[in-house]
Specification:
The chain is mainly beta and 268 residues long. The chain is built from two helices and 17 strands.
Length: 268
């Protein structure tokens, strides 16, 4: 006796649901990234200092190196210490935008935004291209979008495919010239960073803003090479991390931490 049409449909529906569930479980949707934010105008925020303590030795790119090219030079590759990043940017509709360096005489904020900066529009992505994995990345962000007052969403993809995000938004209005320092962001991943994207967003809707912004004093820390002879380590999701040699073990065990947000951050 053959099953009825209704029974076969119910079986097929259950099979599809199970398949979708297995797919969902196989895709990591949140990672082990620690976010450190310091909002301009918030004196109690100490995210930059905490980032420095957690990241350790940092290389800094302040865009004053003449080898980066003259003012207006397009930058598709950015060296920071021994690490090279591919740079890409895009308008909200996905059309590519070419990030470039530029001298701004009004930028005299020591160790934040000073003289020469990297200019982008709407979104900017840093993709490490060096063999040695990157553990930490941070930078100062300047809102330069005319009448638009943006917040900045920071999206991080880790080497194991997990993703995380948080939002940098200061608590002060745009100045009379519609400009402001938004603040500092830093991200740290013991798994290793595959990509970091900064996106200017509307603070209310969360949608991408057609907004110019600048970054300066980009800070980077590499992850030490892991000896494959070490005992295996797993992340908080129970996945082994030594398979790609892009994992850092610290202290007396794996230095993993759960997803967390430091002062000045918000998660939509």
């Amino acid at each position: 006796m053959f099953p009825s049409v209704a029974s076969r449909r119910m079986f097929l529906t259950a099979l599809i649901a199970l398949h979708l569930l297995l797919i969902t479980l196989a895709v990591p949707v949140s990672g082990d990234v620690a976010f450190y934010f310091q909002r301009e105008g918030s004196p109690d925020d100490v995210g930059e200092a905490l980032f420095g303590e957690e990241a350790g030795a940092l290389a800094v790119q302040d865009f004053e190196d003449p080898e980066l090219g003259p003012d207006g030079a397009d930058l598709t590759v950015l060296p920071v210490g021994d690490v090279e990043f591919g740079l890409s940017a895009a308008y909200p509709d996905g059309e590519p935008f070419m990030p470039f360096k530029w001298y701004v005489p009004s930028f005299y904020f020591e160790d934040k935004l000073y003289a020469t900066v990297l200019v982008s529009f709407s979104s900017l992505t840093f993709t490490p291209q060096s063999e040695q994995p990157v553990r930490a990345l941070g930078a100062w962000v300047y809102d330069d979008g005319g009448a638009l007052d943006s917040a900045y969403r920071i999206d991080v993809a880790e080497l194991d495919g997990a993703t995380s995000h948080a939002v940098l938004e200061n608590e002060i209005p745009l100045d009379g010239s519609y400009h402001e320092i938004e603040g500092f962001f830093g991200v740290v991943s013991d798994v290793g960073i595959a990509e970091v994207t900064i996106t200017a967003i509307d603070p209310v809707s969360g949608e991408a803003n057609p907004d110019t912004f600048e970054v300066d004093h980009v800070r980077v820390a590499e992850a030490p090479v892991v000896d494959e002879s070490d005992s295996p380590c797993v992340n908080p999701r129970g996945k082994p991390l030594h398979r790609h040699r892009r994992h850092k073990c610290t202290k007396n065990s794996c230095g993993h931490r759960p997803h967390r947000v430091k002062p000045g951050a918000s998660v939509p």
